[in-house]
Write a structure and sequence with these properties.
This protein is of the alpha/beta class. A seven-stranded mixed sheet has the order 11-10-12-13-14-16-17. Strands 1, 2, 3, 4, 5 and 8 form a six-stranded parallel sheet that branches. It is elongated.
């Protein structure tokens, strides 16, 4: 039987562990976060579950953070409804922090006077045009207003000009560089135009003056057909604003309307719009949404730890990189410059370049049937055979038949010497009994015919080898191009990290310059690998007598079957060592 003192000690230790484990949970302060949205979001920029996961994951060990469903309000896509939802959250005693996730709700939050509780405005298009408060605090840019912090998307410039240039300006510059438009139409929803008139009035004017182009703002009202009908006839590019009220089906219909009019389109929201059929964008990567959620989570944590929201840095940089929907580009007949494609992310590009399925065996069979060199070589045995038959004919019996008819003038004819009309017929025959020259010529012609036959067979084998080698060379070139493209993406990521590290003081300018140099090298390598892939494809198509740029896609099953022979143990037995290899 166990010692009672030992049992009591174990029970005491277990009770103490339970108390110590439960004490931090019991001591955490409960924090309720309220959300204000412009309206129901069929296409959210930042899913609320992602935002909640990041906030709880960062501050959950110190605070009992909650985002109840009943504390998530939306304004029904009306200015009155958004203001009512915002005022309701600010007056709710159960809500500790308010986060606005819409463009209009964030704008309205900044327009309020005294805020009774911390407010985080997450969507700001242009802080100056919208009148957001901004104050320099050393190297930081803060709102300077009590209980207000927001996130302003600005360029990564190092001077004061950065405050005036937003990522929207950078996106439009990227669009202009890729397309080269003269008349830009900007499509905005009615709510944005009503709530932020300066954004719809002054921003297009600034863009037009900076780029030297015409700009027109078209409000989206009611239906897609109405919006498309309102586009100016001479517009040559469309900038699509954050039409978050529309679902995916409506956005796809809008994108199809642009395609039918062969208009290049640019999505402000990001890459999610390219899946609906728009042509270009420069932001909105999946990792950007996570990074954005984490920045909001950091602001929540700092507020909970006692920082004044008005003293938190509001700047956030979104790395801009052009992304192109290659299917849409082909549909509207838009072919970007190579310089543009080099730095762009090409969505659905592989689908367009793959071409028809083609196996290795089918490629070799097609080469035998269509190769021009082999087709020309096919006549060599025929010509040699004809020469052999002619040489052999000299050894056969020769039979000659000749007929001659003569008619002369009557005054020149003579009954004794030459008749006026005469006909002569001749039949002759001969047989070569023995001739070294004729027999040697026949034998030589026979050897030449055999050589022509073997030459054709060799040409056929060379054609098969060229087709197989060309097929595998194209696959190898494609693989190397993917490797170089992947290296370029890794270098871009490292360059972005180096710039961020420099911005926060964790590293110097040298690290950035090193990655910029590596980026230039990787671009050169990618150009070279792409050139090798195109050359390999041209060489392969020449063997099969195909159009020189006609692509194909290999089948994995065929590749596996093709290399299965070389993996067979019976084949390996022939190449296992030098002796058996020589015998083989």
């Amino acid at each position: 039987m166990a010692d009672p003192r030992i049992l009591s000690g174990l029970l005491l230790a277990l009770l103490l562990a339970l108390l110590l484990g439960c004490w931090p949970m019991a001591g955490r302060a409960e924090v309720v976060i309220g959300i204000v949205e412009d309206g129901p979001l069929p296409r959210p920029i930042i899913p609320l579950d992602t935002l909640e996961r990041e906030i709880v994951g960062l501050a959950g060990s110190e605070f009992d953070v909650r985002m109840p469903v009943d504390k998530r309000l939306e304004g029904g896509w009306t200015l009155t409804g958004i203001r009512a939802a915002l005022e309701r959250q600010l007056a709710d005693p159960e809500v500790d922090i308010v986060i606005t996730t819409g463009l209009v709700s964030s704008h309205e939050a900044a327009r309020l006077g005294d805020l009774p509780k911390p407010v985080i405005a997450s969507i700001v298009a242009d802080m100056r045009l919208q009148g957001f408060p901004a104050t320099r605090d050393g190297e930081r840019l803060v709102s300077g207003r009590q209980n207000l912090v927001y996130l302003a998307h600005i360029r990564t410039d190092e001077d004061d000009e950065a405050v005036r240039q937003t990522t929207i300006d950078e996106a439009i510059d990227i669009f202009q560089d890729a397309v080269g438009f003269d008349h830009l139409t900007i499509l905005l929803d009615d709510l944005t135009i009503e709530a932020i008139p300066a954004l719809a009035r002054d921003k297009p004017a600034q863009v037009g003056q900076r780029l030297g182009v015409r700009t027109t703002v078209v409000p989206f009202r009611d239906t897609v057909d109405a919006a498309l009908a309102a586009l100016p006839e001479d517009t040559d590019a469309v900038l699509v604003g954050p039409l978050l009220e529309l679902d995916n089906e409506t956005m796809q219909a809008l994108a199809q309307g642009f395609i039918e009019r062969r208009l290049p389109s640019f999505a402000i929201i990001g890459r999610s719009e390219l899946a609906n059929g728009l042509l270009m964008t420069s932001g909105g990567r999946v990792e950007d949404a996570v990074r954005y959620s984490r920045r909001l989570a950091l602001n929540v944590q700092r507020i909970l730890l006692g920082d004044e929201p008005g003293s938190i840095d509001v700047r956030i940089t979104d790395p801009q990189r052009l992304a192109i929907n290659m299917r849409t580009a082909e549909a509207i007949g838009f072919y970007p410059r190579y310089a543009v494609l080099m730095d762009a992310e090409q969505l659905f590009g592989d689908e367009l370049e793959q071409g028809e399925p083609l196996s290795l065996a089918d490629a070799m069979t097609e080469a035998l049937r269509r190769n021009l060199d082999l087709a020309a070589a096919k006549y060599d045995p025929l010509l040699a055979g004809e020469a052999t038959r002619r040489a052999r004919a000299a050894l056969f019996p020769q039979l000659g038949v000749g007929v001659q008819a003569v008619r002369i003038d009557e005054d020149r004819a003579s009954p004794l010497a030459q008749a006026e009309r005469s006909t002569d017929a001749e039949i002759s025959g001969s047989q070569v009994v023995y001739s070294d020259g004729a027999r040697a010529a026949w034998q030589i012609a026979g050897h030449l015919q055999s050589a022509a036959d073997y030459g054709y067979q060799a040409q056929a084998l060379d054609t098969l080898q060229a087709a197989a080698s060309g097929y595998l060379n194209v696959l190898r070139a494609r693989a190397l191009e993917r490797v170089q493209r992947s290296n370029l993406e890794v270098t871009r990521t490292n360059l972005e990290l180096a710039r961020l590290r420099q911005a926060i003081g964790a590293s110097g300018r040298g690290d950035v310059l090193r990655w910029e140099s590596q980026l230039a090298t990787d671009r050169q390598n990618l150009v070279a690998s792409e050139s090798d892939r195109r050359v390999a494809l041209v060489v392969f198509n020449r063997v099969l007598h195909r159009p020189q740029n006609r692509p194909f896609v290999p089948t994995d099953e065929d590749i596996a079957q093709s290399i299965a022979l070389f993996q067979d143990e019976r084949f390996r037995a022939f190449i296992d060592n030098a002796a058996v290899w020589g015998l083989f």
